[in-house]
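Chapter summary example: a protein plus iron/sulfur cluster.
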Amino acid sequence: MNFVKKSPWILHYDGSSCNGCDIEVLACLTPLYDVERFGIINTGNPKHADILLITGSVNEQNIPVVKQLYEQMAMPKVVVAVGICATSGGIFAECYNVVGGVDKVLPVDVYVPGCAARPEAIIDGVVKALGILEEKQKFARKKNS
Amino acid sequence: MIILIIIGIIILAPLVGGLLTGIDRVITARMQGRQGPPILQPFYDVLKLIQKESIEVNSMHRFYIYISLIFAVFTTVILLSGGDILLAVFALTLGSIFFVLGGYASNSPYSTIGSERELLQIMAYEPMVLLTCVGFYYADKSFFVKDIISASIPSIVYLPGVFIGFVFILTFKLRKSPFDLSMSHHGHQEIVKGITTEYSGRDLAVIEITHWYEVVFALTLVFVFFATKSPISRIVAVVACAAVYFLEIIIDNAFARLKWQQALNAAWIVTGVLGTINLLILSYFR
Ligand code: SF4
């Protein structure tokens, strides 16, 4: 049995988001959407997390931060880029300090478009990520055995 | 036979503890107007953690929490097989101390803060736990659980004050608000996750299972307060355990976390007033 699908813990990192997407991520926890019914917990600790949820684009300042967060997470792990900023840089793409989407520094598994991404879309993205997480775990097991 | 009982306790106790935690999470969610996770969610979490990679900070760091688990299992077995209550309490305290050492071992600032708070909590609840044991001895002239639960009058009749004090400090042991300053179930993003910060994968699962054993330990002590040799009282005792657990969930949801000074003061005042006065009166009449 694969249990990672039943209890995905999320680490949310705010790159250089305008806070629009962050509010929507938090909205998922409210009684209306209640992601805890899928076992999803919003942790603040990379060592406990399975899914790295990044909102906003990556800039020169936070490249080492994003990389370190990713490296501290235990295998298997996936990255979800939430909002158009995280996918490509969005309206901030031309800024002098913005490098671009999250995929410039990390291997992104799921892109959730939208400005701001709606809670339904975020939950959908996370559910997609769960499939990838399961596959990664199977692959890791095969490699070990 | 005795080995069979011990194996039964070792397997069943965490199942009951995990189920109670799951029920707790559902009730908490309903109180907040949410649907909440499935009742088996704590088991899913632990099984997932076991399947995940464990990041090793240093070898001692992991060693301590496994020792802590062994002591928690030992405590539960002693208590549930009718053994010496005093030995059980001391073994559990030793387990908590190893857990604290595990927090210090990683050298992470978050874990260190968690360990310090855990020590404060131990300081706050330990006197009352000891007074409870002393109270049982006063009431039933024995430290053995099997003697206490086969008395003709339930211990609660002699020890109402001690019981209230014990339920009060149970909030520390079950890691519930307002006394969850070292490790809360809810503050997933806060410093109250302290000691667990550097643990991942299987090690985190072990911490969770240790907590399940502790839940069973705490509720067994509540059971001992009510049980006598008649079977009806055993049923009453189980109902009392459920009621106390439900009360703790309500308290958890109704109160905000206190500062450590207030938590320590509150626990010691309750211990001093309810615990000692109860014991004084008891020693006067008996
Ligand atoms: S996608 Fe839109 S709402 Fe989200 S961070 Fe970018 S600008 Fe803000």
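Key point: Chain A has four helices and seven strands.
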